[in-house]
Amino acid sequence: MKDEWNYPGEGIFVEPPVESGARARMVIEGVDLLEHLQTPALMVARGQVRFANAAAKSLLGAHIVGQDVRIAIRDPKAVAAILSESGGTARIPGLSTGGSVWEVDCKVVNGTDRIVSLYDLSERVSVAKSHADFVANASHELRTPLANVIGYVETLMNPKAGSNEELRERFLGTIRHEAQRMQALISDLMSLSRIEAVKHEAPSESVDVVHLARELTGEFRDSAHVELVTNCESAVVAGDRGQLLQVLRNLIDNALKYGQPGGPVHVSVEAASTGWLLVMVRDEGEGIAPEHLPRVTERFYRASNSRSRAAGGTGLGLSIVKHIVERHRGRFDIESRPGKGTTASLMLPLRDQ
Ligand code: ADP
Description:
Layout: H1 21-35, E1 41-45, E2 48-52, H2 54-60, H3 69-72, H4 76-83, E3 88-93, E4 101-109, E5 113-120, H5 122-157, H6 159-162, H7 165-197, E6 205-208, H8 209-219, E7 226-230, E8 236-239, H9 241-258, E9 265-271, E10 276-283, H10 305-310, H11 317-327, E11 331-337, E12 341-349
């Protein structure tokens, strides 16, 4: 049986010999189906690309039709899978963009023709990588205080050091501090996973943010200078009260940690006629250098490692803020002028009343 006729899509279509009419019809119908697939697909026969659907042409270029498959797809492993007797799969790194990962899947039909599908795995691979990075970072952050706790406990178990009252007190203080660091980290990790679990559920409680801000700033009355300014008596959003409280708490905590000791911290809550609520938390601290600014909402990213750790920071506070604001369909922004201070602001859609 002859199979050296062209497939549609190449421009010229040569009628197949009469005896192969049924097969030809099947192939034509198959090719027609492939053309409309979103997945890039090729038909390869005798080592040559005979047909490429629109998605494959846009990925690899229209010129691949008629090309030797080794030139059309340069990756040796992918070519080996395509040309192997029974087909197979292979991964191609960097096929579309530098960091992309594609999978080639080759099925042999009619003993000779090959249908090659290309699947973009880039997103899946990058999610898996960021998950692995996150677990590695979290383990590293926990390992350091844990190693300190073990080290100090072992020293205290030594009768000589353990009987020195002053040393004992000091070491126990350090052990408590390190244990608190681990506790803060575990609590932030649990917050992140709870937020992650409900991220697709739109929050539905009616939350008065003015009331929330009053309650929270009031907590600092005796310990720090945190002032609240607002242009309305109440401003209601569809939200998760606990999460919005956590956002404000994290922002005020940061303004106190990295701002002037004891404040001032300026909190403002403004309802705008556009239907948005603007909440700002401003401090007068050293600020954040411009090169760090775009990354401070990444998990475990710290603009200043030593300051964050000395202040008991976990490196997760702003990442928690960003995720909560996203769940509330809002916007989060942070601006800073080195030497002058930092302003964290969020916009939330007001609930129609
Ligand atoms: P941390 O627990 O370390 O405070 P965050 O996620 O809350 O972590 O913040 C990330 C980093 O951003 C901090 O380590 C700090 O370097 C910087 N940062 C956050 N808020 C401020 C601020 N108000 N002023 C200066 N730097 C800040």
